[in-house]
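Re: the 208-residue chain
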Amino acid sequence: MSDSKDTKSTRDKILEAAQELFSQKGYLGATTKEIARASGIAEVTLFRHFPSKENLFENVIVTRSFLPALKDLLPEVEGMPYEMALNVIAKRFLETLSSKKNLIQIMHSEMHRYPEKIHMIHNSIIDDVIKTLASYFEKLKTKGLLKDFNSELGARAFLGMFFSYFTGQELKKRKKYKGDDTEMTIREYVNIFVNGTLKPVSRQERMS
């Protein structure tokens, strides 16, 4: 049991150091030797956990994406009124993006130079996030609470609104000139989405 805990601890240290260095130098600039040094281990030990730099980067993307947080969050919000649940999801999504801001920024700047497999992993994670949120919409539709719409396109639209906001505020530094209006933006975007997807007969219940 102790070995298992040590192994998990080492793996987590590698992932944390890798995220930090990939955020600073990008996938192309960071080396496994630097990541191993920052993790306090030998490079050969790093390769026991992750056979290649590409595999390590894949694991950073997967474990640090919004997908694990969303999967944990959906059971918590399923009993909430629709509008309240979407507010919680949106807030957590923006928090996740903000905590990975540097990594997201550098990935966008060098994405065109990544190996094809990295592109496939990245797109697969986006698809999984969309499908996971879409499954929440599907459950509400079966209960008769939502209009009939394409759930995956709805999930893409919902997350896209907030990713666009994050891009403008954090990556393009709009917040420096316009201030932080995150709470108002979440409230207004969610209201727009709710009014477009909630059945009219259910609107009186959405805040109950």
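The CA atoms of residues 70 and 89 lie 7 Å apart.
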